[in-house]
Specification:
seven-stranded antiparallel sheet, DUF8083, globular, alpha+beta, DUF8083 domain-containing protein, single chain, 293 residues
């Protein structure tokens, strides 16, 4: 499904009426997520809370709030709450007797997303930027982020989000035929102990730093490895395919990424190029939907 900016005016008006009348939220089926769930024992602020699976309820609240903010004018891209809303991963879903939690951090992640969008969209016209990223909202987000960093010694971000893809760096962290594959609604999720995910990311980063030190994917892989190192050793990493499940699952691209890194490591440039081309072709079919009507 295209983003809001791709909706014709008549459909946008209908979407607004649906939201304001309390109807179904706009579906964001193009998003994928990489989450880290830490043991509940590492988060005493959630002591005594019911740890049954709450993701459907929280996601519905998040999406309804986003609709109210994004389908109105002026656009408000930053949520006011849900920073500490706990997304629980009950012990039964992993099978090791440990309940886990991932703070949703909706506002924190929005601040970071605004910064990235401002960098990525430098070629946009000033008018388009003001419509999508109002200057007032950006200033407010920058101020809130600064205050959060000053007030929080533990300024970690527990979730990464992508649109119309699963980044290749994420795919290094999971191995579907070895890890825990499950379903959350219609979405496939792959879960793996963080030690395994961290080890895989570290291996890939070392290979790429040795063979391709100046490539942008090398920096991103190192960034992922360092991010994973910040969490509890009993944490679980979850790759959530979201609404892209029906487009890509079963997904052979994690194996392609591994195969590509092995080819890079061995110095087989021809094989590395061939595998990378295969990978790109697989995901280009999905990313093309972002601009379709």
């Amino acid at each position: 499904m295209p983003g809001l900016g791709c909706l014709p005016r008549t459909r946008l008006k209908k979407a607004r009426r649906r939201v304001y009348s309390g109807g179904m939220s706009y579906a964001r089926s193009y998003q994928t997520h990489l989450r880290v769930f830490e043991p509940l024992a590492a988060h005493p602020e959630y002591d005594g809370m019911d740890v049954t699976d709450n993701r459907a309820r929280l996601f519905a609240m998040r999406d309804a709030d986003a609709d109210r903010r994004l389908l109105g004018l002026p656009v408000n891209p930053v949520p006011a709450g849900m920073r500490d809303a706990p997304l629980f991963l009950p012990a039964g879903k992993v099978g090791d007797g440990i309940d886990r939690v991932c703070p949703m951090q909706e506002d924190v992640r929005s601040w970071l997303a605004l910064e990235q969008l401002a960098e990525d969209w430098q070629d946009w016209s000033a008018a388009a930027m003001r419509m999508v990223l109002p200057e007032r909202a950006r200033r407010r987000a920058a101020s809130a982020k600064t205050a959060w960093l000053q007030e929080n010694a533990d300024a970690r971000v527990f979730t990464r989000t992508a649109a119309w893809e699963v980044p290749p760096t994420w795919l290094v962290a999971v191995v579907a035929d070895q890890d825990m594959v499950g379903h959350e609604g219609d979405a496939v999720v792959v879960r793996t102990p963080i030690l395994a995910a961290s080890g895989r990311a570290e291996w890939a980063a070392e290979v790429l730093e040795r063979r391709m030190p100046d490539d942008i994917i090398t920096a991103k892989m190192r960034g992922l490895a360092e991010w994973l190192d910040d969490f509890d050793l009993n944490a679980v990493v979850e790759l959530d395919y979201g609404g892209l499940t029906e487009r890509i699952w079963p997904d052979d691209t994690p194996a392609l990424v591994d195969h590509w890194i092995e080819a890079v490591d061995s110095g087989d440039d021809e094989l590395a190029q061939s595998v990378r081309h295969h990978y790109a072709g697989r995901w280009n079919e999905v990313s093309a939907l972002a601009t379709s009507s």
